[in-house]
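Retry 2 of 3 after timeout on previous attempt. Resubmitting C-alpha cells to design endpoint.
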C-alpha cells in the first residue's frame, strides 16, 4: 500500500525544483542586462511560484507538509546554481552563456516532472496538474533554446 508520505516526498521534490528555478532565474536576471530576457525570466519566476503553490495545495490536501522554506533546494540544484555562478564569472555573463545555463536548468526540471508523472503511486488527478505544468515547462525550455 502506498503511503501519502511517498506522494508528499515526490511532490516536495518538485517544489524544490521550482524553488531552484526561481533562484536560478533571479540569478540569471542579475547576470544579464538584456531587457527581453529579463521579461522572460520574470515570467518564468511567476510560473514557478504558481506551480509551487499548486503543488503545496495537493500536499496539504493529502495531509502532508509542504516544504516551507522557499529557498529549500536539493543538492543537485545547489550544484547547478554554483555551476551557473562559476560559468558566468568566467565567461563574462553574455547572453548566450546565460541562456545555456538556463536551458540546462529547464531540461533538468522537465526530466524531474517526467519522472514524477511516471510514478505509479501519484494519483491521476495530481498527474493531470503535473502534466499541465510539464507542458508549460517544455514550452519555456523551447523558448530558451530558440533564443540561444
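Retry 2 succeeded. Sequence:
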Amino acid at each position: 500500500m502506498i503511503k501519502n508520505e511517498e506522494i508528499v516526498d515526490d511532490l516536495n521534490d518538485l517544489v524544490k525544483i521550482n524553488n531552484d528555478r526561481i533562484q536560478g532565474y533571479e540569478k540569471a536576471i542579475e547576470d544579464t542586462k538584456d531587457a527581453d530576457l529579463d521579461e522572460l525570466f520574470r515570467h518564468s519566476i511567476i510560473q514557478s511560484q504558481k506551480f509551487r503553490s499548486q503543488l503545496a495545495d495537493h500536499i496539504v490536501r493529502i495531509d502532508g507538509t509542504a516544504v516551507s522554506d522557499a529557498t529549500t533546494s536539493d543538492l543537485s540544484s545547489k550544484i547547478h546554481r554554483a555551476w551557473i555562478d562559476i560559468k558566468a564569472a568566467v565567461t563574462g555573463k553574455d547572453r548566450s552563456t546565460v541562456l545555456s545555463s538556463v536551458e540546462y536548468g529547464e531540461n533538468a526540471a522537465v526530466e524531474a516532472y517526467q519522472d514524477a508523472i511516471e510514478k505509479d503511486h501519484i494519483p491521476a488527478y495530481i498527474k493531470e496538474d503535473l502534466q499541465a505544468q510539464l507542458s508549460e515547462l517544455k514550452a519555456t525550455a523551447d523558448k530558451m533554446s530558440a533564443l540561444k
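Attempt log closed. The two ends are 46 Å apart (CA to CA).
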